[in-house]
Design a protein that fits this description.
Length: 196
């Protein structure tokens, strides 16, 4: 495992019609970090996404929101990673997760894609599962057919659910200094104990 995070990627679908949908929760965190750092994300064609190199909590790192569709996210991640000669274990992928209750959040190293098309494509492009993931719980639809799940993640959360998700994102931002210092286990303990 890497000693520090160099690239934080917020998964999303491009376009105004998707901006406030559950599937874009990962991008919400990256947008918050850009605001915190008083920087702007700019479209970079070579990375297929919105990008900034900035200081977050006094740590220099790259922010990226792919502007491909969700199921093509790996192209953006791989291109940016290769351009800056990063390794997969220095990347944090932030994404929505329907298997976690609304407002819960988990930091994870390694593992499968959990049925998430963005993660699936990233694993395919990087040829490894060994990177960090920050899973933002958006809750689960009442029915579990594939169509129901697709509809659910492409809808806007209720006002109360959005408040829960925003609160979780704030908690996640608070543990980033630990991640940047390479204190991964401590970051996990702090984050996960808050939501127990």
């Amino acid at each position: 495992m890497s000693s520090s995070i160099q690239l934080i990627v917020g998964l999303a679908n491009p376009g105004a019609e998707y901006a406030d949908t559950r599937h874009n929760a990962g991008a919400w965190l990256v947008e918050n970090l850009a605001q915190l750092a008083k920087t702007s994300l700019h479209f970079e064609a070579k990375y297929h996404g919105l990008h900034a190199l900035t200081q977050v909590y006094e740590h220099r790192c790259h922010l990226l929101i792919p502007t491909t569709y969700m199921n093509l996210s790996g192209q953006a991640v791989k291109t940016c990673m290769n351009y800056y000669k990063m390794t997969p274990d220095s990347i944090l992928i932030v994404h929505d997760d329907i298997d976690l209750p609304v407002g819960s959040i988990k930091l994870k190293w390694d593992g499968g894609d959990g049925g998430h098309n963005g993660l699936k494509d990233i694993i395919s492009h990087l040829h490894t599962k060994q990177f960090y993931r920050l899973r933002i719980g958006v809750g689960h639809p009442r029915h579990s057919t594939k169509a129901d799940v697709v509809d659910y993640v492409l809808e806007k959360p209720s006002k109360s659910d959005r408040q829960e998700i925003d609160s979780a994102i704030t908690s996640a931002q608070d543990i980033l200094p630990l991640l940047f210092q390479g204190e991964i286990q401590k970051a996990m303990q702090v984050l996960h104990s808050e939501k127990e």
